[in-house]
Each structure stands twice: as C-alpha cells, then as structure tokens.
Predict the structure.
Amino acid sequence: MKQKLLLFVLAIICSAGMFAQNRADQIRKKLLSRDESSVIVASHRGDWRNFPENSLEAIDNAIKMGVDIVEVDLQRTKDGVLILMHDPKIDRTTTGKGVIAELPYDSIAKTHLKNGCNIRTIHRVPTLEQALLHAKGKIMLNLDKADRYFDQVYALLQKTGTTKQIIMKGNKSAEEVKKLYGSYLNDVIYMPIVNLDKKNAEQQLNMFMKDMNPVAFELLFKSDSNPLPLRVPKIFNHKSLIWYNTLWDTMAGGHDDDMSLSDPNKGYGYLIDTLGARIIQTDRPQYLIEYLRSRGLHD
C-alpha cells in the first residue's frame, strides 16, 4: 500500500514538472493558432512592484502569478555580455554608476539591484543567458531592444534551447524584418508595432497582413477620438491577435492600468470587448489576471 501511495505521489510530481516545462509551448501554440478564447497576459519588466525590474526574481514571481509573457530589456557590456536592463546606464536600477557599454560585466555583477522605491536589494543583474535558462519552458519572453545585436542573441537562444520561446516586436517594415531576421522567423515570433494615430497606419496594417501574416500586432493610440481602433478587428478578421499596452494612458486611448484600478470594465474590459484585444501588457499583472479569471478569460 505504501509503495502504491509513493508511486502515486511521484506521478503527480512528475506531471506537475512536465506541465511547468511545457507551459511555454502551450502559450506559443495559443499565439500561433490565433486563439481568441482567452486573453494572454504580458508583464512589463517582470513583476517589478514586488522585485527589482528585469531581475530573475521578477520573472519568477510573474510565472507564479500565471503570467504568459514577460517583457525584458537588453543591453550589452563593454566586453560583449548581454544583460537584462532597460537604461543605457546602471545608475537608476543598481547601486553602481556608469554607462553599460563602457563597463565590463564583472564590475556590473558586483552591484546590487534596486527596487521600485530606489532601495538596495540582495538581487543582482542577470545576464541574458542566465535569464533564458531560468525561464526555459516556463514562460514566453519578449526581448526588447534585442534587434541591435540579434545574431548574438540568437546564438544564445540556440545554446540554451529557447529559440521557440522568444517574441520580438518592432516598427520596421516587413521588407526590413525579413532582410534582418530571415530564417530566425521560423522560430522567433515577430510582432509589428503600429501607431494607429499615424496617417498611413491602416496601409501599414494591410501591408503586414499581406507580406508577413503576423501572429499579432502591438497597437498604439492616444484617444478614443481615433476611429481606427474600432475598425481593426474587422481588418484583421481573426487572422492576427491584437496586443495593447496599459502601462500609461497615451498607449491605449486612456484605457490603462490606472483607469482599470477604478473600473476594470472601462479599462481592460473596453480593450477586450470593444477593441478585440487578446494580449495585454501591464504593470499590474496580478490585478489583470484576477479580473480576467473572474470573467473566465484566463486559466
């Protein structure tokens, strides 16, 4: 009896481990299939309200919450090491000072990350390779600022076995994207960024749809006075998912995290129900996930 119970427990543990390791594949499949049955949550710089931004711990906590995509930023040190950091300097987010491109990695590694209140923590600046291994199989990663040295990035993706776990976004033309990234696009998911307030925005959408058939678009607009966001779902006709950012008010017509804290139906709900958003990037991942789960829109 004890032996059977032990085997049962081991089976549950193994199943849980397989689920965790397969989660990135599941999210990727939802993206590639243009699944509109739920809303995918992207966390900006990880869970930076509880841990330092762009830290391994911020990624970990986002995973624990149930976040689907973590956005992280890349910079390169003087000796060519790719690290997670938003700013070109280490002054704001660490206990050190200096321009990253002028500092060797060893000197940056000795500093401590600061939290959102500018307080020193025990956490350190991770390399991209460390972050890839840390998140392997668990979550999709949106690598911001990666296009500046993507050959080096892709070599690390191959080394760590994470080539199919990566999202890149940008505002380059379809022709430029194909020329720059070529065969990388068989693995890495590329999403165009289109500002819907620009005069040629609708033309850009149609050109990308024709030339690249993107999995999703990141869309930006400042005000609800712009009629194009209302037309986008019909233009896409379920062929591409819609990604909106709720980080601040001018990114999605005022329907941001702050509005959502007052009334989530006017913020997140409007983006989902009226504008067809199926990917939302937020600075409040836990709040967004709770709202989505209350509506049956997130696992």
